[in-house]
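Consider one such protein record:
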Amino acid sequence: MKKMIMLFSALFITTSLLLATDKSEVVDVVNKHWKYQNTKDWGKYVGTMHSEGTMNGDSNGSFWYKGESTVAAVTEGQSPDNEFNFTPRYIEVDILEKGKVAVAYYYLVGSYTINGVQKNDYRTRVSQIFVKEKGNWKVKAGDYTPLHSGSGIPN
C-alpha cells in the first residue's frame, strides 16, 4: 500500500511539473513574440509562429485571415518608421493536450505608430492557440478584441 501511494504521488508530481513546464514555456513564447515585434526582430518574431502560418482576427475588426510565417509576409506594407510598444499582461494558459496544444489568454497594452497612425491607448484582449512543432511551442491562431475605450490597430 505504501508503495502504491508513493507511485501515485510520484506520477501526480511528475504530471503537475510537466503541465507547469508547458504553461511557463507558453508564457515565455508570448513574451518573446511581442518583444521581437517591439524590436522589429522579424526573423525571431516569425520563429514564434507555426511554420504553416497562422489564422488571425485583428483588433481592427478584420475578417479572419491566414497569415504566412515569413519575414516578407509580416513586414509587407509596413513603413520603416513603424514603432511598436506592446506588453502582454495577466497571461493565463490552459493546456488542452499536454505537450501538444495550449491556449493563452491575456491583455495586450501599449502604443504604436503604424503607417503614420499613432496611438497611445492600445488595449486589446487576446486569445492565442499554441501547438508544439519540433519540440517548441508556436503560435497557430490568434484573436484580438479591443477593450472598452481602447484602440485597436489601424486597417
